[in-house]
Design a protein that fits this description.
By secondary structure, the chain is α/β, with parallel strands linked by helices. It is built from twelve helices and eight strands. It has an eight-stranded parallel beta sheet with strand order 1-8-7-6-5-4-3-2. Belongs to the DapA family.
Amino acid sequence: MNMSWKGVMPAMTTKFTDDDRLDLKMFEVNLKAQMKAGVDALILGGSLGEASTLLEEEKSVLTRAAVDMVDGKIPIVVNIAEQATKAAMNAAETAEQDGASGLMILPPMRYKADDRETVTYFQEIAKSTSLPIMIYNNPVDYKIHVTLEMFEELLKYDNIQAVKESTRDTTNITRLINRFGDRLKILGGVDTLALECLVMGADGWVAGLVCAFPEETVAIYRLVKAGRIDEAAAIFRWFLPLLELDINPKLVQNIKLAEVATGIGTENVRAPRLPLAGEERAQVLSIIENGMKTRPKLPDYLNL
């Protein structure tokens, strides 16, 4: 399936049973809710998907299951976050064999590669696969900044096509557009900045709270692209306290608790993570409960 790198792409949570196995039944419940809401692709195995805790065979099971569930209707993108170039190339090969339509790739993990090493890392992966690639640029969390000059080198490879822009600097959207035009697709990667990114010309939104609130997320995107900014902003203002749950060290637990509230997930996380407890849990529940009580009525966003 061709990747267009636009629209809403949920960074899917990974569902677990009470005995810590993959919960493919609940995963399918959530996946169907995403598709019904109108998302444009699904991203598996990101930080929100607890990828660092998944066994390699579990990643393959999850990818193959998702490919079967979407039945060719939307693309499946697999995240790659590895320490070694060789391991990343192997992961790309496995994702392709499992039926993925694209890859989202982080810079090398743990080792803080310099610019030359980072560019070479991405280039070697690009040469090893026919799948289209989105670079995940998140210097705040992962300490490596993919600069405009680095993208100049990376875009010599046709299958490097997009960036998940998570620098927290919304002016970077304009810099990227000015420098690369339509050659590099841009997807906002920070929930609380998504509206600004879309208004400034981002092609899409790699979203987190979409896992619990898919309709509201897609509505914001579709309204912006239809030029109905005021309506999108009104929904976004309601959404912001919930979106802030994504910019938190316990984003996985927060978002899974929100999925419970909307009926499309469970709280189960994989150790060393534990479900929220005590005052921390109460505060998050208060935000979620208020959001549920004040949930806005949406326009017919799928037919704009």
